[in-house]
Structures are given as C-alpha cells and as structure tokens.
Amino acid sequence: MALDEHVSQLIDSLNSQGVPSFEQLSVDQARAVVDTFTGLQAPAQEVSRIENLTYPGGNGDLPLRLYVPEHVHERPGPRPVVLYLHGGGFIGGSIDVADEPCRAMANGTGAIVVSAGYRLAPEHKFPAAPDDAMAALRWVAAHIVDFGGDPDCIVIAGDSAGGNLAAVTALRTRDEGGPRLRGQVLIYPVIDPNADFPSAREYAEGYIITKPALDWFWSHYLPGPGDAGNPYAVPSRADDLSGLPPALVLTNEYEVGRDEAEDYAAKLKAAGVDTAVRRFGGLVHGVFWMSGAVPRSSEVLAAVCDYLGSITEPSGV
Fold first, then answer.
1. Which domains are assigned to the chain?
2. Cα-based torsion angle of the residue sequence 203, 102, 249, 138 in order, rounded to the nearest 10 degrees
3. Beta bridge pairs of residue 54
4. Which end of the chain has fewer surrounding CB within 10 Å, N or C?
5. d(CA 189, CA 185)
6. Alpha-carbon gap, residue 17 to 23, rounded angstroms
7. Helix H or strand E segment including 66
8. In the structure, what pLDDT confidence band is assigned to residue 74 with cuts at 50, 70 and 90?
9. Which of 153, 186, 140, 106 is nearest to 316 (CA)?
10. Burial letters for 27-49: b for 16+ Cβ neighbours within 10 Å, e otherwise?
11. In Å, how far from its chain's centre is CA 192?
C-alpha cells in the first residue's frame, strides 16, 4: 500500500523543519522530542474517573495513572483491566505522553486502564524497566479490586519499547508463577536488536524511526552485547514460548521492526500460543500516538479495543 497521505505530510513537515533523527540527539533532546507527540494527538476524551497513584518500583515509588471508563455502570460486576506500558525507546516517554490513547482505550473497551511509568535508560539500564513492569503488574493484581477491577482478568499491553516490556512481562509471569494474565497486546513491539529482516533494510531511513535510531535506543538500554541473549530483554530468545497468554501483535507496513515483530508472532503461534497478527498498510511506527495527525490511527485503536473485548468477556478464557 502507498504511504498514508497524512503520514507523508507529517514526514514532509518534519523534514522541512530539519528535525534530526533520534540518534543525532542527546538523551535529553530525544526525550523532549518524544514528549512532543502530544501535539499529534486528538483532544483527550473524558473518562469517568482518573486516579494518580504510585507503586513500589525497584528504586522507589513510580507513577501509575488509573482510568475508569465512561458509562462505568453499564457493565455489571468487576471490570477487566489493562496494564499499559508506554513506548519511548526505553529512554523516554511517560504516562503523560500516553494519556490520550489510554483514555480512548478505556472508553473503547470498558476496561480499567492502568498506565505505569518505569525507570528509563541510560540512567537505569536493563533489567530496571522489566523489573518495574513486573512490580506494576503485582501492584495491579493486589489492589485493582479496590477500584472495581477484576484481578482475574488482567491484560498487559504496550507500544514500541512498551510492547517489548509487555511481551517480557508475559514471559516472566509464566516463569515466576503469576500474576496470571488474560492476554498480551503488543503494539508494534521492538523485539531484537540483532534481528536481520528485510524491513530493517527497506525502511531503514525516512519513516519517523530509522534503523540507526533504533540501534541507538537499544545501545542505551542494554548494558552490553551479551544482554541481547537474555529473553527478559529480547523475548524471541526464550527457549520455550509455550504456555504464554493469548497475544495480539500489531505491525505497520513502513517500519524497521515490522518483520521482527511478525517473526515473534510466528514463534508464539508455533509454540501453541493463540496469536492474532495484523499489519496496517501505509502506516509507520508511532502511529498509536498520532490520533490527531493521522486519522487512520483510529484503526490501530479499534483493533486493540476489539481484541480486548473478545478476550475479556466474562465467559472468555
């Protein structure tokens, strides 16, 4: 499919402004660029309730933002729960940047969405982020009932680096005996810094996230090359992927990490994991955070909401 016209306009605008690729920036500059994604988003939806909370991370308290959807009284009983981990290349992003899509996800699913912050690289390299993600999940499992959520119906979700952390958290819950997950939603996850697939070459330049930028993110996240063999950093390196919760893997046509994400989905399927995969033609990495600039971002949100609805029905898995 041809590149989406709104994506093309966005890329042209960035090029005309001389916006450099991430690998040409300092970490602080890159974080500031990630924060500007709020300017690409539609006006945030109203939700029934928001709670700004904290959970005990690996190095002190970390932020959680809990979203109770509109029309909260339309569904009887405790509500399903989505623990969402934001993207940002492991070095940036926050619950504030992801506020708009989290509101939309809560209203679109009827689930309570809990957005968790985590320690960022390079100040806190691997395994800080996945350790925090596990701590956030344990907090949700222990406390979500106090907010009307169902601790037996938790789905882990994330985009980009957050998609990696969601996949890793699903692995760890299996290996560490819980908390049990109803499913995992991996929105264009980055999977493996050493992956060698055609998309990494075909879309290496010119589509928001370049191959050198992705390499730069990984270099800040991993303490050393040997860590790329650790399945809690690179989930495709796990010896055994069986017994994981059902998965939705979403990718975009014009992105470096497309093929490695789809390869991970194929590995999940081969291991007997119920896995749905969808590729969005014409779109690029980061589109989940571009609801205002790229109208077709709504297709990604709809796919997430439809899937979450299908696996969180009371009679479901």
1. 5-311 (3.40.50.1820)
2. 120
3. 63
4. N
5. 9
6. 17
7. strand 60-68
8. low
9. 153
10. beebbebbeebeebbeeebebee
11. 15
pTM beyond cutoff 0.90? yes
What is the three-class DSSP state of 29? helix
Q: Tell me the pairing of strands 60-68 and 112-116.
A: antiparallel
Per-residue tokens: 283: 């779109």
Of 299, 297, 255, the closest CA to residue 6 belongs to 297
Please enumerate in sequence order all residues whose Cβ is within 8 A of that of 259, keeping only pairs 6 or more positions apart, or say none. Answer: 195, 197, 198, 199, 200
Longest Cα–Cα distance in the chain: 52
CA separation for the pair 276, 183 (Å, rounded): 11
Report whether 150 contacts 144 (CB < 8 A): yes
Q: What's the rounded Cα separation, in Å, for the pair 130 and 272?
A: 24
What is the H or E stretch that residue 148 is in? none
Angle at the Cα of 247 from the Cα atoms of 199 and 175, rounded to 5 degrees = 105
3-state SS assignment for residue 161: helix
Record the tokens describing residue 130, joined without a space.
């996945």
Show the tokens assigned to 104. 């939309």
